[in-house]
């Protein structure tokens, strides 16, 4: 990514998100707007609990009968987390916090955090959270870890502040690699249309991370269940299954090219991948517009296993940049949703539920129509249905809900069954965790 210099930033698109979390916080605001309906979730906490997905509040006699349903959200899906990741400095951070809409009053007017007089207190609470954490890789490379907004709900990118610090430190000819959650349909699209708009930085290249196993699944391979052994299709050569899954990779490559950015495919090798399978992915990727496709073995060899990838990224970054956004902010909210659904997902149409259409019209009338779109969608499919694999076309994307994140600066349409509060699996890992009282060692974490 270029600022006002020759510095490059490379955006990584992964089929699996790296989880970077830092400094979580809880935030509670009580709405004093009588007869208001809430726009945002008031309570966030970093815990998994299905029972917190729907709660009833205001049952105390002192609340004068203002009982209503609400819910908890996990911290990383909160608007404050998104604001933390998008703020350029303390002043911008404070302004964004003040603009958060927490409710609408009985006249339909937005009630902001500033209206409730909590902006200053929020700044004091979060004054240390704006500082990125400096860490390092196993080989000593510096890593700035900061913010963790969910990619399927928020924009899924590390913070602009961390990127700015890194860009300054590497110098004019240096490279900064930044990561955003999930594939091109969610992570990359939001990185470009939301984060790059906010930061003003221009990306130089995209690294699309792919695996043979993931492509076989998109080709119709058997379901993969955590904790159970992989099926033979993923452990033995199967060129036919792989070939059927390659349209998914091609779609992700095309998505990157739509922004005018060169795409380098990084094939993350597993032990069972064969030379013929790897050669097939390389050939198809380059034939369909990838700048290059490179085999990566950094999981086994460290940095030495990604040297060829780094060289390909350097060559790609030397190309003349032709970056552009996917849509104009002056389009209506529905037109922007349709643009994303058609161009990024392959949908034919977008279907808004009646309550969604009414709320979209309200946001438009209240002056929020020029905000970018932050689709809340499953990462497991290009569609809104996690069970549909490959690269389907001509489907209808159904939008069941929509929320406003005025402070973060985007509208969030919710596609399919997306929840802001995860739940534990049927058999959570807690059953395997224990402390060895003789050695003092913790067991069962991995």
Question: How does this model look, in words?
Answer:
This protein starts with 7 loop residues before the first strand and ends with a strand. Strand 7 and strand 8 (110-112) form a beta hairpin. The protein has a 5-stranded parallel β-sheet, with helices on both faces. A 3-stranded antiparallel β-sheet has the order 2-7-8, with no helix packed on it. The chain has a 3-stranded mixed β-sheet with strand order 15-16-17. The longest helix has 19 residues, at 239-257. The chain is an alpha/beta fold. Helix 2 packs across helix 3 and helix 5 (184-199) packs parallel to helix 8. It has 13 helices and 19 strands.
Topology of helices and strands:
Layout: E1 8-13, E2 37-38, E3 43-44, E4 55-57, E5 68-70, E6 72-73, H1 79-86, H2 90-99, E7 101-104, E8 110-112, H3 119-126, E9 133-136, E10 142-145, H4 160-170, E11 175-180, H5 184-199, E12 205-210, H6 212-218, H7 232-235, H8 239-257, E13 263-268, H9 275-287, E14 292-296, H10 298-301, H11 307-317, H12 333-345, E15 349-352, H13 354-368, E16 396-405, E17 410-415, E18 434-435, E19 442-443
Parallel strand pairs: 1-11, 1-12, 3-6, 12-13, 13-14, 15-16
Antiparallel strand pairs: 2-7, 4-5, 7-8, 9-10, 16-17, 18-19
Helix pairs in contact: 2-3, 5-8, 6-8, 8-9
Mean pLDDT across the residues is 88
Spatial strand arrangement across the major sheet: 11-1-12-13-14
Number of helices: 13
Using only C-alpha atoms, the radius of gyration works out to: 23 Å
Please indicate the percent range of residues in DSSP E strands (runs of 2 or more).
15-25%
């Amino acid at each position: 990514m270029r600022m006002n210099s020759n510095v490059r930033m490379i955006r990584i698109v992964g089929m699996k998100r790296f989880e970077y979390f830092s400094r979580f916080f809880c935030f509670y605001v009580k709405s004093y707007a009588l007869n208001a309906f809430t726009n945002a979730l008031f309570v966030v906490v970093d815990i998994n609990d299905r029972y917190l997905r729907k709660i009833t509040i205001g049952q105390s006699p002192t609340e004068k009968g203002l009982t209503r349903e609400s819910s908890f959200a996990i911290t990383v899906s909160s608007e404050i987390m998104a604001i933390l990741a998008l703020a350029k400095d303390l002043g911008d951070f404070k302004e964004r916090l003040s603009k958060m809409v927490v409710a609408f009053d009985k006249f339909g007017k937005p009630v902001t955090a500033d209206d409730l007089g909590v902006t200053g207190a929020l700044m004091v609470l979060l004054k240390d959270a704006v500082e990125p954490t400096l860490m390092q890789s196993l080989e000593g490379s510096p890593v700035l870890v900061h913010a963790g907004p969910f990619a399927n709900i928020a924009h899924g990118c590390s913070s602009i502040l961390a990127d700015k610090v890194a860009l300054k430190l590497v110098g004019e000819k240096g490279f900064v690699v930044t990561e955003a959650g999930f594939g091109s349909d969610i992570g990359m699209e939001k990185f470009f249309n939301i984060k790059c708009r906010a930061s003003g930085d221009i990306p130089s290249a995209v690294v699309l991370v792919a695996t043979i196993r993931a492509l076989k699944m998109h080709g119709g391979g058997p379901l993969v269940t955590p904790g159970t052994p992989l099926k033979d299709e993923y452990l033995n050569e199967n060129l036919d299954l792989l070939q059927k899954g390659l349209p998914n990779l091609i779609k992700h490559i095309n998505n990157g090219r739509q922004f005018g950015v060169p795409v380098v495919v990084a094939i993350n090798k597993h032990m069972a991948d064969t030379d013929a399978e790897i050669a097939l992915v390389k050939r198809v990727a380059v034939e369909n517009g990838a700048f290059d496709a490179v085999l990566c073995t950094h999981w086994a060899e460290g940095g030495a296993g990604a040297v060829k990838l780094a060289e390909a990224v350097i060559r790609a970054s030397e190309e003349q940049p032709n970056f552009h956004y996917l849509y104009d902010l002056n389009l209506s909210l529905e037109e922007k949703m349709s643009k994303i659904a058609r161009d990024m997902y392959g949908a034919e149409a977008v279907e808004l539920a009646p309550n969604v259409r009414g709320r979209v019209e309200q946001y438009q009338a209240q002056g929020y129509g020029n905000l970018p779109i932050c689709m809340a969608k499953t990462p497991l499919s290009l569609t809104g249905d996690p069970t549909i694999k490959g690269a389907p076309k001509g489907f209808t994307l159904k939008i069941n809900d929509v929320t406003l994140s005025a402070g973060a600066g985007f509208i969030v349409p919710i596609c399919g069954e997306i929840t802001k509060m995860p739940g534990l699996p049927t058999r959570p890992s807690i059953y395997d965790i224990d402390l060895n009282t003789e050695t003092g060692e913790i067991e069962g974490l991995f």
